[in-house]
Design goal:
There is one protein chain. The protein is mainly β. It is built from no helices and 23 strands. It has strands at residues 5-13, 19-27, 32-36, 45-47, 53-57, 61-66, 72-77, 92-95, 102-108, 111-118, 121-125, 134-136, 141-148, 151-158, 163-171, 177-179, 184-189, 192-197, 202-209, 211-215, 221-226, 229-234, 245-250. The model is unreliable at 251-257 (pLDDT under 50).
């Protein structure tokens, strides 16, 4: 988010055959790596709104760590979210853009429980099924995935009203993404890229297959993956009969365009 740090989480296989998580933050300015704590093989940290810090759970609760200074700050005590915590999965913290509101999330395998902290109040929320497809889209609302295998839906949740709004239903796979600068949501409807403008409150289908969509800061184009290739698409071209889709990069060593 800040443009300086790249956060990586990967799974390594030990000689015993057991998986082990390995995370690090790469400083694009200084060209060095900062190891992230924890050997949990799946998601066990979140990135703070500034992009310059991350949050993870330790014995005291959930702490936020500044990358540059390594300074730690306790954000939530264990007792604050004990009602959702489990012994076998780490708890995650998602901060709103203004850092005033929070969602603590814990679970695994599509079964998660959340605790929402907003306006001095807190309550349990049990509809979220993936921490990877959860994003604060404003200080008062977030987007999340709901449902089970082969039948997922995308919802917006208003924390002021404590109400959910369905924006996409019954998809085999959703792959929700959020581009914060243009304020555009992206998701899939049965592998077809859709995007939702928060300003226009309208879901638009592109007719293009893809995954892992990210929009440019001005919202005029997006990149997407399909079959190990990275493509860039101009939004203006979607109005044409043949959208302009340009191949950017292929993940193997044979071709780079």
């Amino acid at each position: 988010l800040s443009g300086r740090y790249l956060f990586i989480k990967r799974i390594l296989i030990e000689e015993s055959g057991m998986p082990r998580g390995d995370g690090f933050c790469f400083d694009l300015l200084k060209k060095n790596k900062h190891p992230l704590p924890g050997a949990y093989p799946f998601m066990d940290f979140t990135i703070s709104p500034s992009g310059n810090a991350y949050a993870h759970e330790n014995a005291a609760g959930i702490v936020e760590v500044d990358i540059a200074s390594a300074e730690k700050r306790l954000v939530l005590k264990k007792t604050d979210y004990s009602g959702i915590a489990t012994a076998d999965s780490p708890s995650l913290l998602f901060l709103s853009p203004n850092r005033q509101n929070m969602v603590a999330l814990c679970g695994s395998g599509g079964n998660y429980r959340a605790k929402i902290f907003f306006g001095g109040k807190a309550w349990i929320f049990s509809e979220i099924t993936s921490p990877l497809e959860f994003f604060w889209i404003s200080n008062n609302s977030f987007v999340y995935r709901k449902g089970g295998t082969g039948n997922f839906s995308v919802y917006l949740y208003d924390v002021k009203e404590k109400s959910s709004t369905l924006i996409l239903a019954n998809s085999l796979h959703t792959s929700i993404g959020f581009s914060p600068y243009p304020k555009i949501l992206s998701c899939l409807k049965d592998q077809i890229i859709h995007y939702y403008s928060l300003r226009d409150k309208k879901m638009i289908g592109t007719g293009l297959e893809g995954d892992d969509v990210a929009f440019s800061p001005d919202g005029n184009r997006f990149i997407s993956l399909i079959k190990q290739r990275l493509f860039m698409t101009e939004i203006s071209s979607l109005l044409k009969k043949q959208p302009e889709v340009r191949k950017v990069h292929r993940t193997d060593r044979k071709s780079v365009v």
